[in-house]
Task: structure prediction
Amino acid sequence: MHNQDSRNHAIHFWIACFVIFTLVNAVVRCVLVGMSLPQAQYFSMQTIAALLMGAVNDVAIGVLLSSVFFVGLHLLKNFWNRIVGKTVAIALFLSTLIVLNFTALAEVIFWNEFDSRFNTTAVYYLIFPREVLGNIKESFDLSLLLPPVFVGAIVLFFLMKRKFFAALNDKASLAQVKKPVLLAGMLALVSALYIWMAPVYSFESRQLNQIAESGYHTFLASLIHRKTEYHGIYPGLAANEAQQTLQSTLVQQNTAFLSQEKIKKPTLRHVTPVHPVQKKNVVLVIEESFGSVYYDDMGPKVAQMISPNLHKIAEKGMFFSNIYSTGDRTVRGLEALLTSFAPIPGISTVRRPEHDQMYSLPWVLGNKGYETAFLYAGHSGFDNMRQYWDSIGFHHVWEQDDIKDQGFTTVWGVADEYLFKEALKRMDEHTKKDKPFFLSMLTTTNHRPFVYPKGRIQANPDDKQRENAAAYADWSLGQFIEKAKSHDWFDDTIFVIIGDHGPKVFGHETVPIQAFRVPLVFYAPGEIVPSRHNVTGSSLDVAPTLLGLLGLEYDSPFFGRDLQLVQADDGRASMSYNFTVAYAQNDEVTILKPNGPSEAYRIAKDHLSLKREDHVPLELERKAIAQTQTAYDMFYSHNYHFN
Result:
Protein backbone atom coordinates (compact mmCIF):
# COMPACT_ATOMS: atom_id res chain seq x y z
CA MET A 1 0.00 0.00 0.00
CA HIS A 2 2.88 2.34 0.84
CA ASN A 3 4.51 1.71 -2.55
CA GLN A 4 1.26 2.36 -4.38
CA ASP A 5 0.89 5.70 -2.55
CA SER A 6 4.49 6.59 -3.44
CA ARG A 7 3.84 5.90 -7.07
CA ASN A 8 0.77 8.09 -6.90
CA HIS A 9 2.88 10.88 -5.42
CA ALA A 10 5.37 10.52 -8.28
CA ILE A 11 2.56 10.65 -10.82
CA HIS A 12 1.03 13.65 -9.06
CA PHE A 13 4.39 15.43 -9.22
CA TRP A 14 4.70 14.60 -12.92
CA ILE A 15 1.23 15.97 -13.62
CA ALA A 16 1.97 19.11 -11.59
CA CYS A 17 5.17 19.76 -13.58
CA PHE A 18 3.26 19.31 -16.80
CA VAL A 19 0.49 21.70 -15.70
CA ILE A 20 2.96 24.41 -14.67
CA PHE A 21 4.77 24.15 -18.00
CA THR A 22 1.57 24.46 -20.03
CA LEU A 23 0.20 27.32 -17.90
CA VAL A 24 3.40 29.38 -18.17
CA ASN A 25 3.46 28.93 -21.93
CA ALA A 26 -0.25 29.72 -22.20
CA VAL A 27 0.43 33.02 -20.44
CA VAL A 28 3.28 33.74 -22.89
CA ARG A 29 0.98 32.97 -25.81
CA CYS A 30 -1.68 35.36 -24.52
CA VAL A 31 0.97 38.07 -24.07
CA LEU A 32 2.08 37.58 -27.68
CA VAL A 33 -1.51 37.96 -28.84
CA GLY A 34 -1.71 41.26 -26.98
CA MET A 35 1.58 42.42 -28.50
CA SER A 36 0.71 41.48 -32.09
CA LEU A 37 -2.98 41.72 -32.81
CA PRO A 38 -5.42 44.62 -32.67
CA GLN A 39 -7.84 44.40 -29.76
CA ALA A 40 -10.76 43.66 -32.09
CA GLN A 41 -9.11 40.36 -33.08
CA TYR A 42 -8.43 39.05 -29.57
CA PHE A 43 -11.53 36.84 -29.55
CA SER A 44 -11.89 36.16 -33.27
CA MET A 45 -12.36 32.54 -34.34
CA GLN A 46 -8.90 32.54 -35.95
CA THR A 47 -7.22 33.77 -32.77
CA ILE A 48 -9.10 31.28 -30.60
CA ALA A 49 -8.14 28.50 -33.02
CA ALA A 50 -4.49 29.58 -32.82
CA LEU A 51 -4.63 29.59 -29.01
CA LEU A 52 -6.21 26.12 -28.96
CA MET A 53 -3.68 24.76 -31.41
CA GLY A 54 -0.95 26.34 -29.31
CA ALA A 55 -2.36 24.63 -26.22
CA VAL A 56 -2.16 21.28 -28.02
CA ASN A 57 1.44 22.02 -29.01
CA ASP A 58 2.26 22.93 -25.41
CA VAL A 59 0.68 19.70 -24.19
CA ALA A 60 2.89 17.72 -26.60
CA ILE A 61 6.06 19.59 -25.63
CA GLY A 62 5.10 19.45 -21.95
CA VAL A 63 4.50 15.69 -22.01
CA LEU A 64 7.80 15.16 -23.82
CA LEU A 65 9.86 17.24 -21.37
CA SER A 66 8.08 16.21 -18.16
CA SER A 67 8.35 12.53 -19.11
CA VAL A 68 12.10 12.86 -18.77
CA PHE A 69 11.58 13.97 -15.16
CA PHE A 70 9.20 11.11 -14.46
CA VAL A 71 11.39 8.39 -15.94
CA GLY A 72 14.53 9.79 -14.31
CA LEU A 73 12.72 9.97 -10.99
CA HIS A 74 12.26 6.18 -11.01
CA LEU A 75 15.36 4.95 -12.79
CA LEU A 76 17.66 6.89 -10.45
CA LYS A 77 15.59 6.43 -7.28
CA ASN A 78 18.48 4.98 -5.26
CA PHE A 79 20.51 8.12 -5.98
CA TRP A 80 17.69 10.53 -5.09
CA ASN A 81 17.26 8.87 -1.67
CA ARG A 82 20.78 9.88 -0.63
CA ILE A 83 21.67 13.27 0.82
CA VAL A 84 23.84 14.12 -2.20
CA GLY A 85 21.07 13.00 -4.52
CA LYS A 86 18.46 15.15 -2.80
CA THR A 87 20.80 18.15 -3.00
CA VAL A 88 21.34 17.56 -6.72
CA ALA A 89 17.60 17.06 -7.25
CA ILE A 90 16.77 20.34 -5.52
CA ALA A 91 19.37 22.19 -7.59
CA LEU A 92 18.11 20.60 -10.83
CA PHE A 93 14.45 21.30 -10.10
CA LEU A 94 15.06 24.90 -9.04
CA SER A 95 17.29 25.46 -12.09
CA THR A 96 14.57 24.05 -14.34
CA LEU A 97 12.01 26.45 -12.88
CA ILE A 98 14.41 29.36 -13.40
CA VAL A 99 15.00 28.28 -17.03
CA LEU A 100 11.23 27.96 -17.55
CA ASN A 101 10.62 31.51 -16.33
CA PHE A 102 13.64 32.96 -18.10
CA THR A 103 12.62 31.32 -21.38
CA ALA A 104 9.15 32.82 -21.05
CA LEU A 105 10.68 36.28 -20.56
CA ALA A 106 13.16 35.71 -23.40
CA GLU A 107 10.34 34.72 -25.76
CA VAL A 108 8.53 38.00 -25.11
CA ILE A 109 11.72 40.04 -25.57
CA PHE A 110 12.64 38.13 -28.75
CA TRP A 111 9.13 38.60 -30.16
CA ASN A 112 9.29 42.33 -29.44
CA GLU A 113 12.46 42.55 -31.53
CA PHE A 114 11.83 39.99 -34.28
CA ASP A 115 8.04 39.50 -34.31
CA SER A 116 8.67 35.76 -34.22
CA ARG A 117 9.17 32.73 -32.03
CA PHE A 118 12.76 31.61 -31.55
CA ASN A 119 14.37 30.99 -34.94
CA THR A 120 17.83 30.65 -36.47
CA THR A 121 18.66 34.13 -35.18
CA ALA A 122 18.14 32.88 -31.62
CA VAL A 123 20.31 29.83 -32.34
CA TYR A 124 23.23 31.88 -33.58
CA TYR A 125 22.89 34.52 -30.93
CA LEU A 126 23.56 31.82 -28.35
CA ILE A 127 26.80 30.97 -30.13
CA PHE A 128 28.07 34.50 -29.43
CA PRO A 129 27.24 35.11 -25.74
CA ARG A 130 29.54 38.14 -25.39
CA GLU A 131 27.54 40.23 -27.84
CA VAL A 132 24.17 38.83 -26.85
CA LEU A 133 24.57 39.14 -23.09
CA GLY A 134 26.17 42.54 -23.52
CA ASN A 135 23.31 43.64 -25.75
CA ILE A 136 20.74 42.51 -23.18
CA LYS A 137 22.62 44.25 -20.38
CA GLU A 138 22.87 47.52 -22.30
CA SER A 139 19.32 47.38 -23.65
CA PHE A 140 17.30 46.41 -20.59
CA ASP A 141 17.29 47.09 -16.88
CA LEU A 142 18.12 43.61 -15.61
CA SER A 143 17.56 44.72 -12.02
CA LEU A 144 13.88 44.90 -12.95
CA LEU A 145 13.64 41.90 -15.29
CA LEU A 146 15.65 39.20 -13.52
CA PRO A 147 14.24 39.33 -9.95
CA PRO A 148 10.75 38.19 -11.08
CA VAL A 149 12.41 35.25 -12.86
CA PHE A 150 14.13 34.06 -9.67
CA VAL A 151 11.31 34.99 -7.31
CA GLY A 152 8.81 33.23 -9.53
CA ALA A 153 10.99 30.10 -9.59
CA ILE A 154 11.29 30.11 -5.78
CA VAL A 155 7.51 30.56 -5.36
CA LEU A 156 6.83 27.67 -7.73
CA PHE A 157 9.38 25.54 -5.91
CA PHE A 158 7.69 26.07 -2.54
CA LEU A 159 4.26 25.42 -4.06
CA MET A 160 5.59 22.14 -5.43
CA LYS A 161 7.80 21.25 -2.45
CA ARG A 162 5.51 18.66 -0.86
CA LYS A 163 4.90 16.80 -4.14
CA PHE A 164 8.58 17.07 -5.04
CA PHE A 165 9.91 15.48 -1.83
CA ALA A 166 7.15 12.87 -1.80
CA ALA A 167 8.22 11.84 -5.30
CA LEU A 168 11.88 11.68 -4.26
CA ASN A 169 11.02 9.36 -1.37
CA ASP A 170 9.45 6.77 -3.65
CA LYS A 171 10.43 3.30 -2.35
CA ALA A 172 8.83 1.27 -5.15
CA SER A 173 10.89 -1.38 -6.92
CA LEU A 174 11.69 -1.22 -10.63
CA ALA A 175 9.18 -4.00 -11.33
CA GLN A 176 6.44 -2.04 -9.58
CA VAL A 177 7.04 1.14 -11.61
CA LYS A 178 7.49 -0.62 -14.95
CA LYS A 179 4.00 0.21 -16.18
CA PRO A 180 4.10 3.94 -15.29
CA VAL A 181 7.56 4.28 -16.84
CA LEU A 182 6.47 2.49 -20.02
CA LEU A 183 3.35 4.66 -20.15
CA ALA A 184 5.47 7.80 -19.82
CA GLY A 185 7.75 6.55 -22.57
CA MET A 186 4.81 5.84 -24.88
CA LEU A 187 3.29 9.25 -24.23
CA ALA A 188 6.64 10.86 -24.95
CA LEU A 189 6.92 8.91 -28.21
CA VAL A 190 3.41 9.93 -29.29
CA SER A 191 4.18 13.55 -28.42
CA ALA A 192 7.44 13.45 -30.38
CA LEU A 193 5.64 12.03 -33.43
CA TYR A 194 2.97 14.72 -33.17
CA ILE A 195 5.58 17.48 -32.90
CA TRP A 196 7.42 16.02 -35.90
CA MET A 197 4.37 15.54 -38.12
CA ALA A 198 1.94 18.25 -37.02
CA PRO A 199 1.22 21.00 -39.59
CA VAL A 200 3.16 24.20 -38.97
CA TYR A 201 1.35 26.54 -41.36
CA SER A 202 -2.33 26.27 -40.46
CA PHE A 203 -3.32 29.92 -40.85
CA GLU A 204 -2.89 32.50 -43.58
CA SER A 205 -1.48 34.91 -41.00
CA ARG A 206 2.21 34.42 -40.22
CA GLN A 207 1.70 35.91 -36.76
CA LEU A 208 -1.11 33.47 -35.93
CA ASN A 209 1.09 30.59 -37.06
CA GLN A 210 3.83 31.86 -34.78
CA ILE A 211 1.42 32.33 -31.88
CA ALA A 212 0.21 28.75 -32.30
CA GLU A 213 3.81 27.48 -32.30
CA SER A 214 5.98 26.64 -29.30
CA GLY A 215 9.27 28.48 -28.87
CA TYR A 216 10.88 25.24 -27.67
CA HIS A 217 9.85 23.54 -30.90
CA THR A 218 10.93 26.38 -33.21
CA PHE A 219 14.29 26.67 -31.47
CA LEU A 220 14.99 22.94 -31.80
CA ALA A 221 13.82 22.93 -35.44
CA SER A 222 16.09 25.89 -36.22
CA LEU A 223 19.01 24.15 -34.53
CA ILE A 224 18.50 20.93 -36.49
CA HIS A 225 17.46 22.33 -39.88
CA ARG A 226 19.56 25.50 -40.15
CA LYS A 227 21.30 24.00 -43.20
CA THR A 228 18.02 22.97 -44.80
CA GLU A 229 18.09 20.56 -47.73
CA TYR A 230 16.25 21.84 -50.78
CA HIS A 231 15.43 18.72 -52.78
CA GLY A 232 12.48 16.72 -51.52
CA ILE A 233 11.38 19.48 -49.16
CA TYR A 234 10.63 22.37 -51.51
CA PRO A 235 8.94 22.27 -54.94
CA GLY A 236 11.42 21.36 -57.69
CA LEU A 237 12.05 21.29 -61.42
CA ALA A 238 14.23 19.14 -63.66
CA ALA A 239 17.76 20.55 -63.51
CA ASN A 240 17.92 21.61 -67.18
CA GLU A 241 14.46 23.17 -66.99
CA ALA A 242 15.41 25.10 -63.87
CA GLN A 243 18.62 26.33 -65.46
CA GLN A 244 16.92 27.48 -68.65
CA THR A 245 14.20 29.26 -66.69
CA LEU A 246 16.79 31.00 -64.52
CA GLN A 247 18.84 32.08 -67.54
CA SER A 248 15.76 33.69 -69.08
CA THR A 249 15.48 35.93 -66.01
CA LEU A 250 19.13 37.06 -66.18
CA VAL A 251 19.38 38.09 -69.84
CA GLN A 252 20.42 41.72 -70.37
CA GLN A 253 21.49 43.58 -73.49
CA ASN A 254 25.18 43.51 -72.52
CA THR A 255 25.47 39.87 -71.39
CA ALA A 256 26.22 36.61 -73.20
CA PHE A 257 26.06 33.21 -71.50
CA LEU A 258 29.22 31.13 -71.70
CA SER A 259 27.97 27.95 -73.34
CA GLN A 260 30.94 25.78 -72.40
CA GLU A 261 30.08 26.25 -68.74
CA LYS A 262 26.34 26.13 -69.26
CA ILE A 263 25.66 22.90 -67.39
CA LYS A 264 27.94 23.36 -64.40
CA LYS A 265 27.62 27.14 -64.08
CA PRO A 266 24.31 28.08 -65.71
CA THR A 267 24.45 31.70 -64.50
CA LEU A 268 27.95 32.37 -65.86
CA ARG A 269 27.91 35.06 -68.52
CA HIS A 270 30.24 37.56 -70.08
CA VAL A 271 29.39 41.19 -69.32
CA THR A 272 30.33 43.88 -71.81
CA PRO A 273 30.30 47.42 -70.36
CA VAL A 274 27.92 50.05 -71.69
CA HIS A 275 29.87 52.85 -69.99
CA PRO A 276 33.51 53.78 -70.58
CA VAL A 277 35.97 52.31 -68.09
CA GLN A 278 36.58 54.55 -65.09
CA LYS A 279 38.57 52.95 -62.32
CA LYS A 280 37.10 55.04 -59.54
CA ASN A 281 37.63 54.29 -55.90
CA VAL A 282 34.57 52.66 -54.34
CA VAL A 283 33.19 53.15 -50.82
CA LEU A 284 30.36 50.78 -49.93
CA VAL A 285 28.54 51.90 -46.77
CA ILE A 286 26.35 49.15 -45.33
CA GLU A 287 24.03 50.78 -42.80
CA GLU A 288 22.90 48.50 -40.00
CA SER A 289 19.10 47.99 -39.96
CA PHE A 290 18.45 51.10 -42.06
CA GLY A 291 15.22 50.24 -43.86
CA SER A 292 13.01 52.38 -46.03
CA VAL A 293 10.84 52.94 -42.99
CA TYR A 294 13.45 55.57 -42.07
CA TYR A 295 13.44 57.12 -45.51
CA ASP A 296 9.89 57.41 -46.77
CA ASP A 297 7.50 54.85 -45.30
CA MET A 298 6.55 57.03 -42.35
CA GLY A 299 5.61 60.07 -44.39
CA PRO A 300 7.27 63.47 -44.97
CA LYS A 301 8.31 63.87 -41.33
CA VAL A 302 10.93 61.18 -41.87
CA ALA A 303 13.01 63.43 -44.11
CA GLN A 304 13.00 66.14 -41.46
CA MET A 305 13.42 64.04 -38.32
CA ILE A 306 15.28 60.82 -39.17
CA SER A 307 17.08 60.90 -42.52
CA PRO A 308 17.60 64.47 -43.78
CA ASN A 309 21.22 63.73 -44.73
CA LEU A 310 20.42 60.60 -46.71
CA HIS A 311 17.70 62.56 -48.51
CA LYS A 312 20.23 65.23 -49.49
CA ILE A 313 22.66 62.57 -50.74
CA ALA A 314 19.89 60.75 -52.65
CA GLU A 315 18.80 63.96 -54.38
CA LYS A 316 22.31 64.31 -55.82
CA GLY A 317 22.81 60.66 -56.67
CA MET A 318 21.20 57.74 -58.45
CA PHE A 319 18.52 56.68 -55.98
CA PHE A 320 16.54 53.43 -56.05
CA SER A 321 13.42 53.58 -53.91
CA ASN A 322 12.10 50.05 -54.27
CA ILE A 323 14.97 47.75 -53.28
CA TYR A 324 14.53 44.71 -51.05
CA SER A 325 17.15 43.07 -48.85
CA THR A 326 17.43 39.29 -49.19
CA GLY A 327 16.85 38.63 -45.49
CA ASP A 328 16.36 40.09 -42.05
CA ARG A 329 19.91 39.63 -40.75
CA THR A 330 23.23 41.31 -41.51
CA VAL A 331 24.82 38.09 -42.79
CA ARG A 332 22.09 37.88 -45.44
CA GLY A 333 22.87 41.46 -46.44
CA LEU A 334 26.58 40.68 -46.71
CA GLU A 335 25.88 37.58 -48.78
CA ALA A 336 23.76 39.52 -51.26
CA LEU A 337 25.85 42.70 -51.48
CA LEU A 338 29.27 41.04 -51.70
CA THR A 339 28.55 37.83 -53.65
CA SER A 340 25.21 38.59 -55.37
CA PHE A 341 24.16 35.09 -54.40
CA ALA A 342 20.45 34.25 -54.27
CA PRO A 343 19.11 33.31 -50.82
CA ILE A 344 18.63 29.61 -50.15
CA PRO A 345 16.48 28.30 -47.27
CA GLY A 346 17.96 28.21 -43.79
CA ILE A 347 21.06 30.12 -42.78
CA SER A 348 23.14 32.51 -44.86
CA THR A 349 26.17 31.19 -46.75
CA VAL A 350 28.27 33.33 -44.38
CA ARG A 351 27.55 30.64 -41.80
CA ARG A 352 28.18 27.67 -44.15
CA PRO A 353 31.77 26.41 -44.51
CA GLU A 354 31.26 25.77 -48.24
CA HIS A 355 31.36 29.55 -48.88
CA ASP A 356 35.17 29.53 -49.11
CA GLN A 357 36.27 31.31 -52.34
CA MET A 358 32.77 32.20 -53.49
CA TYR A 359 32.71 34.46 -56.53
CA SER A 360 32.42 37.99 -55.20
CA LEU A 361 32.61 41.72 -55.78
CA PRO A 362 35.99 42.07 -54.01
CA TRP A 363 37.38 39.20 -56.08
CA VAL A 364 36.28 40.82 -59.37
CA LEU A 365 37.65 44.21 -58.33
CA GLY A 366 40.86 42.61 -57.06
CA ASN A 367 41.39 41.04 -60.49
CA LYS A 368 40.86 44.47 -62.07
CA GLY A 369 43.72 45.98 -60.08
CA TYR A 370 41.86 47.21 -57.01
CA GLU A 371 43.09 46.95 -53.46
CA THR A 372 40.15 45.77 -51.36
CA ALA A 373 39.33 46.07 -47.66
CA PHE A 374 36.48 45.61 -45.21
CA LEU A 375 36.18 47.85 -42.16
CA TYR A 376 33.82 46.73 -39.40
CA ALA A 377 32.83 48.73 -36.34
CA GLY A 378 32.63 45.65 -34.12
CA HIS A 379 34.44 42.38 -33.50
CA SER A 380 34.58 40.43 -36.74
CA GLY A 381 34.44 37.01 -35.09
CA PHE A 382 30.72 37.55 -34.62
CA ASP A 383 28.66 35.43 -37.04
CA ASN A 384 31.86 34.13 -38.70
CA MET A 385 32.23 37.41 -40.60
CA ARG A 386 36.02 37.74 -40.60
CA GLN A 387 36.58 34.27 -42.00
CA TYR A 388 33.94 35.01 -44.63
CA TRP A 389 35.52 38.31 -45.70
CA ASP A 390 38.96 36.73 -45.88
CA SER A 391 37.68 33.79 -47.91
CA ILE A 392 35.84 35.76 -50.61
CA GLY A 393 38.78 37.91 -51.65
CA PHE A 394 39.27 40.96 -49.41
CA HIS A 395 42.93 41.89 -49.10
CA HIS A 396 42.44 43.53 -45.70
CA VAL A 397 39.93 43.07 -42.89
CA TRP A 398 39.89 45.71 -40.15
CA GLU A 399 37.69 45.54 -37.09
CA GLN A 400 37.08 47.36 -33.82
CA ASP A 401 40.53 46.58 -32.40
CA ASP A 402 42.10 48.24 -35.48
CA ILE A 403 40.21 51.52 -34.94
CA LYS A 404 42.43 53.92 -33.00
CA ASP A 405 39.84 56.47 -31.90
CA GLN A 406 37.01 54.59 -30.15
CA GLY A 407 35.36 57.59 -28.60
CA PHE A 408 32.05 55.83 -27.91
CA THR A 409 31.28 52.11 -27.94
CA THR A 410 28.51 49.63 -27.25
CA VAL A 411 28.78 45.87 -27.06
CA TRP A 412 28.36 45.83 -30.86
CA GLY A 413 31.26 48.18 -31.62
CA VAL A 414 32.27 51.82 -32.05
CA ALA A 415 29.70 54.50 -32.79
CA ASP A 416 29.23 55.29 -36.47
CA GLU A 417 31.04 58.63 -36.42
CA TYR A 418 34.23 56.92 -35.20
CA LEU A 419 33.94 54.22 -37.84
CA PHE A 420 33.68 56.92 -40.51
CA LYS A 421 36.60 58.81 -39.00
CA GLU A 422 38.71 55.65 -39.36
CA ALA A 423 37.43 55.20 -42.91
CA LEU A 424 38.63 58.67 -43.90
CA LYS A 425 42.08 57.87 -42.53
CA ARG A 426 42.23 54.52 -44.34
CA MET A 427 41.13 56.11 -47.60
CA ASP A 428 43.85 58.74 -47.25
CA GLU A 429 46.47 56.02 -46.76
CA HIS A 430 45.45 53.64 -49.50
CA THR A 431 44.49 56.06 -52.28
CA LYS A 432 48.08 57.33 -52.27
CA LYS A 433 49.06 54.03 -53.85
CA ASP A 434 49.10 53.60 -57.60
CA LYS A 435 45.87 51.58 -57.69
CA PRO A 436 42.17 52.21 -57.05
CA PHE A 437 40.77 51.30 -53.63
CA PHE A 438 37.56 49.49 -52.68
CA LEU A 439 36.51 50.02 -49.06
CA SER A 440 33.41 48.31 -47.74
CA MET A 441 32.23 49.05 -44.22
CA LEU A 442 29.48 48.02 -41.84
CA THR A 443 28.03 50.28 -39.14
CA THR A 444 26.57 49.12 -35.81
CA THR A 445 24.95 52.01 -33.93
CA ASN A 446 21.47 51.55 -35.39
CA HIS A 447 21.01 48.40 -33.32
CA ARG A 448 19.66 47.69 -29.89
CA PRO A 449 20.52 49.12 -27.31
CA PHE A 450 20.06 52.21 -29.58
CA VAL A 451 22.52 54.44 -27.72
CA TYR A 452 24.98 56.96 -29.19
CA PRO A 453 27.11 59.96 -28.13
CA LYS A 454 25.19 62.85 -26.64
CA GLY A 455 25.02 66.23 -28.32
CA ARG A 456 25.05 64.99 -31.91
CA ILE A 457 21.32 65.11 -32.49
CA GLN A 458 18.52 66.68 -30.49
CA ALA A 459 17.05 63.38 -29.23
CA ASN A 460 18.33 62.00 -25.93
CA PRO A 461 20.22 58.69 -26.29
CA ASP A 462 19.14 57.70 -22.77
CA ASP A 463 15.66 57.14 -24.21
CA LYS A 464 17.08 54.15 -26.19
CA GLN A 465 14.64 54.70 -29.04
CA ARG A 466 15.08 52.88 -32.34
CA GLU A 467 14.18 55.97 -34.41
CA ASN A 468 16.70 58.11 -32.50
CA ALA A 469 19.52 55.67 -33.24
CA ALA A 470 18.55 55.78 -36.92
CA ALA A 471 18.64 59.59 -36.81
CA TYR A 472 22.13 59.46 -35.30
CA ALA A 473 23.22 57.00 -38.01
CA ASP A 474 21.96 59.47 -40.61
CA TRP A 475 23.77 62.35 -38.90
CA SER A 476 27.03 60.36 -38.89
CA LEU A 477 26.62 59.51 -42.57
CA GLY A 478 26.06 63.18 -43.42
CA GLN A 479 29.17 64.16 -41.48
CA PHE A 480 31.20 61.51 -43.29
CA ILE A 481 30.18 62.68 -46.76
CA GLU A 482 30.78 66.34 -45.89
CA LYS A 483 34.24 65.62 -44.52
CA ALA A 484 35.06 63.35 -47.48
CA LYS A 485 34.50 66.29 -49.84
CA SER A 486 37.65 67.95 -48.53
CA HIS A 487 39.86 64.96 -49.33
CA ASP A 488 41.78 64.59 -52.60
CA TRP A 489 40.22 61.23 -53.44
CA PHE A 490 36.58 62.42 -53.21
CA ASP A 491 36.20 63.38 -56.88
CA ASP A 492 37.54 59.98 -57.93
CA THR A 493 35.21 57.93 -55.72
CA ILE A 494 31.79 56.33 -56.08
CA PHE A 495 29.87 55.99 -52.83
CA VAL A 496 27.27 53.23 -52.50
CA ILE A 497 24.92 53.51 -49.52
CA ILE A 498 22.38 50.83 -48.58
CA GLY A 499 20.75 49.29 -45.53
CA ASP A 500 21.72 45.67 -44.84
CA HIS A 501 18.07 44.94 -43.95
CA GLY A 502 15.05 46.63 -42.41
CA PRO A 503 14.83 47.48 -38.70
CA LYS A 504 12.22 44.92 -37.72
CA VAL A 505 10.10 42.24 -39.34
CA PHE A 506 6.42 42.98 -38.97
CA GLY A 507 3.17 41.90 -40.57
CA HIS A 508 0.92 38.87 -40.95
CA GLU A 509 2.36 37.52 -44.21
CA THR A 510 4.49 34.36 -44.34
CA VAL A 511 7.34 36.55 -45.59
CA PRO A 512 6.39 40.16 -44.75
CA ILE A 513 8.54 41.60 -47.51
CA GLN A 514 7.46 45.19 -46.89
CA ALA A 515 9.75 45.04 -43.85
CA PHE A 516 12.72 44.11 -46.09
CA ARG A 517 12.65 47.30 -48.18
CA VAL A 518 15.83 49.41 -48.02
CA PRO A 519 17.05 52.65 -49.66
CA LEU A 520 19.92 52.43 -52.18
CA VAL A 521 22.02 55.34 -53.45
CA PHE A 522 24.96 55.51 -55.88
CA TYR A 523 26.60 58.88 -55.24
CA ALA A 524 29.40 60.56 -57.18
CA PRO A 525 28.79 64.28 -57.88
CA GLY A 526 29.90 65.22 -61.37
CA GLU A 527 30.08 61.58 -62.45
CA ILE A 528 26.63 60.13 -61.76
CA VAL A 529 23.65 62.11 -63.04
CA PRO A 530 21.04 62.55 -60.27
CA SER A 531 17.99 60.38 -60.90
CA ARG A 532 15.26 58.48 -59.08
CA HIS A 533 14.19 54.95 -60.01
CA ASN A 534 11.15 53.03 -58.82
CA VAL A 535 12.00 49.71 -60.47
CA THR A 536 11.72 46.69 -58.16
CA GLY A 537 15.20 45.51 -57.30
CA SER A 538 17.26 43.56 -54.81
CA SER A 539 20.44 43.92 -52.81
CA LEU A 540 21.59 41.18 -55.22
CA ASP A 541 21.69 43.87 -57.91
CA VAL A 542 24.15 46.20 -56.16
CA ALA A 543 27.38 44.51 -57.32
CA PRO A 544 26.38 44.22 -61.01
CA THR A 545 25.11 47.81 -61.03
CA LEU A 546 28.32 49.12 -59.47
CA LEU A 547 30.49 47.20 -61.92
CA GLY A 548 28.35 48.62 -64.73
CA LEU A 549 28.96 52.17 -63.47
CA LEU A 550 32.70 51.45 -63.40
CA GLY A 551 32.54 50.25 -67.02
CA LEU A 552 34.30 46.98 -66.26
CA GLU A 553 34.26 43.93 -68.53
CA TYR A 554 34.10 40.64 -66.63
CA ASP A 555 32.64 37.14 -66.42
CA SER A 556 29.80 36.93 -63.93
CA PRO A 557 27.79 34.13 -62.27
CA PHE A 558 25.93 36.77 -60.23
CA PHE A 559 22.23 36.27 -59.60
CA GLY A 560 21.76 40.04 -59.65
CA ARG A 561 21.45 42.33 -62.66
CA ASP A 562 22.59 45.83 -63.60
CA LEU A 563 19.67 47.98 -62.44
CA GLN A 564 20.52 50.64 -65.01
CA LEU A 565 19.42 48.22 -67.75
CA VAL A 566 16.34 46.75 -66.05
CA GLN A 567 13.03 47.79 -67.59
CA ALA A 568 10.45 49.31 -65.27
CA ASP A 569 8.10 46.33 -65.72
CA ASP A 570 10.80 43.67 -65.26
CA GLY A 571 12.07 44.30 -61.74
CA ARG A 572 12.69 41.36 -59.40
CA ALA A 573 13.63 40.69 -55.79
CA SER A 574 14.30 37.64 -53.61
CA MET A 575 13.97 37.24 -49.84
CA SER A 576 14.50 34.48 -47.30
CA TYR A 577 12.79 34.41 -43.92
CA ASN A 578 13.36 31.47 -41.59
CA PHE A 579 12.74 28.47 -43.89
CA THR A 580 10.69 30.20 -46.58
CA VAL A 581 11.79 32.01 -49.74
CA ALA A 582 9.89 34.81 -51.48
CA TYR A 583 10.35 35.79 -55.12
CA ALA A 584 8.88 39.06 -56.36
CA GLN A 585 8.40 40.33 -59.89
CA ASN A 586 7.13 43.89 -59.82
CA ASP A 587 4.14 43.71 -57.45
CA GLU A 588 3.57 39.94 -57.68
CA VAL A 589 5.06 37.67 -55.02
CA THR A 590 5.36 33.89 -54.78
CA ILE A 591 6.51 32.25 -51.56
CA LEU A 592 8.08 28.78 -51.47
CA LYS A 593 7.47 26.84 -48.25
CA PRO A 594 8.93 23.57 -46.96
CA ASN A 595 6.57 20.63 -47.34
CA GLY A 596 3.65 22.83 -48.23
CA PRO A 597 1.95 24.62 -51.11
CA SER A 598 3.34 27.89 -52.41
CA GLU A 599 1.56 31.13 -51.58
CA ALA A 600 0.83 34.20 -53.70
CA TYR A 601 0.62 37.86 -52.69
CA ARG A 602 0.46 41.24 -54.31
CA ILE A 603 2.41 44.24 -53.01
CA ALA A 604 0.29 47.30 -52.20
CA LYS A 605 0.99 50.50 -54.12
CA ASP A 606 2.40 52.13 -50.99
CA HIS A 607 4.74 49.12 -50.50
CA LEU A 608 3.61 48.84 -46.87
CA SER A 609 1.52 45.68 -47.03
CA LEU A 610 0.77 42.54 -49.03
CA LYS A 611 -2.57 41.19 -50.18
CA ARG A 612 -3.10 37.43 -50.31
CA GLU A 613 -4.02 36.12 -53.77
CA ASP A 614 -6.12 33.01 -54.41
CA HIS A 615 -3.99 31.55 -57.20
CA VAL A 616 -0.22 31.18 -57.47
CA PRO A 617 1.05 32.38 -60.90
CA LEU A 618 2.67 29.24 -62.32
CA GLU A 619 5.33 31.09 -64.32
CA LEU A 620 6.36 33.15 -61.30
CA GLU A 621 6.52 30.02 -59.15
CA ARG A 622 8.74 28.39 -61.81
CA LYS A 623 11.12 31.35 -61.65
CA ALA A 624 11.22 31.19 -57.86
CA ILE A 625 11.96 27.46 -57.93
CA ALA A 626 14.52 27.82 -60.72
CA GLN A 627 16.50 30.47 -58.88
CA THR A 628 16.46 28.86 -55.44
CA GLN A 629 17.04 25.29 -56.59
CA THR A 630 19.88 26.25 -58.96
CA ALA A 631 21.52 28.45 -56.34
CA TYR A 632 21.44 25.56 -53.87
CA ASP A 633 22.91 23.14 -56.41
CA MET A 634 25.62 25.54 -57.56
CA PHE A 635 26.67 26.31 -54.00
CA TYR A 636 27.05 22.71 -52.89
CA SER A 637 28.68 21.57 -56.15
CA HIS A 638 31.23 24.40 -55.72
CA ASN A 639 30.21 25.98 -59.02
CA TYR A 640 29.73 29.50 -57.64
CA HIS A 641 33.38 29.75 -56.71
CA PHE A 642 36.47 31.24 -58.33
CA ASN A 643 38.66 28.25 -57.39
Q: What stands out?
A: The CA atoms of residues 545 and 562 lie 4 Å apart. The first strand starts at residue 255 and ends at 257. The chain is about 45% helix and 15% strand. The radius of gyration is 27 Å.
